[in-house]
Amino acid sequence: MCGLKGLYPIYIFTFYFVLGLLAAISPLGILEVLALNGSSTAQPNQRENQKVFYDNFEMPVIERRGIAVIADFQNSSLEDWQGDGIQNVADLRAILVQMEAHWQWLSRNTEEFQWHIQRVRLPVDLGPAAFGSWWEFREAVSRQLEQQVNVADYDLNGGGFIDSVWIVVSNNGQEYEYMIGGASITSVANVFVDAQNSTSVIAGAFGNFNHELGHTLGLPDLYGPYGTISYLSMMADSWPVPPSDLTAYERVKLGWLSPRVISETTSNVQLSSADKHFDAVLVPTIRDKEYFLIENRRRPDSGFGSVAPPSNGLAVYQVFEISNQTLDPPLLKLQRKRRKTHTLDRAGQ
Ligand SMILES: [Zn+2]
Fold this sequence. Notes:
- The chain crosses the membrane at residues 12-36.
- Keywords: Membrane, Transmembrane, Transmembrane helix.
- By secondary structure, this protein is an alpha/beta fold.
- The protein has two domains: 2-39 and 221-334, no CATH class; 45-216, Collagenase (Catalytic Domain) (3-Layer(aba) Sandwich), CATH 3.40.390.
- 20% of the residues lie in helices and 24% in strands.
- The protein has helices at residues 8-24, 89-106, 134-148, 199-203, 207-216, 248-253; strands at 33-34, 45-54, 57-72, 111-121, 162-169, 182-185, 189-195, 260-261, 281-284, 290-297, 313-320, 332-334.
- A hairpin with a 2-residue loop joins strand 2 (45-54) and strand 3 (57-72).
- The protein starts with 7 loop residues before the first helix and ends in a 15-residue tail after the last strand.
- Zinc ion (ZN) binds at residues 211, 215, 221.
């Protein structure tokens, strides 16, 4: 990491370049310049005959599919649990419906994520020795699931794996190491795991499940020792209920947004509200893997994305593609606000 310190002079240079750009767009008004510095992309199917109008463009609705698989044991079924959490299929379906609605909102109605429910019964009793590792457990569930479904039906990006599987463990209140949460890939699928009474399930924090879904679609974590993104992305903070939005960075990764590239001083750059539009500016730097992304964040008054401090304005992210949030500089860093202007805020639409 010490070797990266030589990069700082370049950051200073690029930062002032961005300040120049911000000054150029000041006629739009900058109420708050949010503190800023700043993967595989799925190629899902397009649903025939169904389209949405977006920014006056007609766009096909993209349909993604995932499988929530209930993992029962020989001596433990989902319905055996009587405590807080998922007690039956209807409880699970209710969570999936919330996740689907959140994803539809994240994609501003350009994508529909459909969760299907499957069920497997593992050939062992629930207990501490049922599996030797979390990897073995996930592999066992995946192998059984593979017998029940046509993988290609859930492999919309053609990667040879089921794109997204959520394993819900019928753990009857027991906790063992092999049930640990988080996303990983098995020989069959991109999976993430929750016990039927996990903390997230009991809290009703379904943003955590769509956070993991984001991982299965190639999004990285945006929290960590050098994280600055916080409530601006569910990949940084997935606990709010209702859950948060995504930044321009993830929108680009998911194929939703093609930012306008501005490589020289430009005036009258108009940025529509990221709350309602896929709009962002990309400012390259002289470094290959480094650039700035700028978006106009507007916090919704209610519903998804509304659990956040009431800061509206330009968010300037410094992106360093070959890093992550545990390194300095990180993958995505919100640039710090240097000064406040008092022009009228007319950027939001
Ligand atoms: Zn994560």
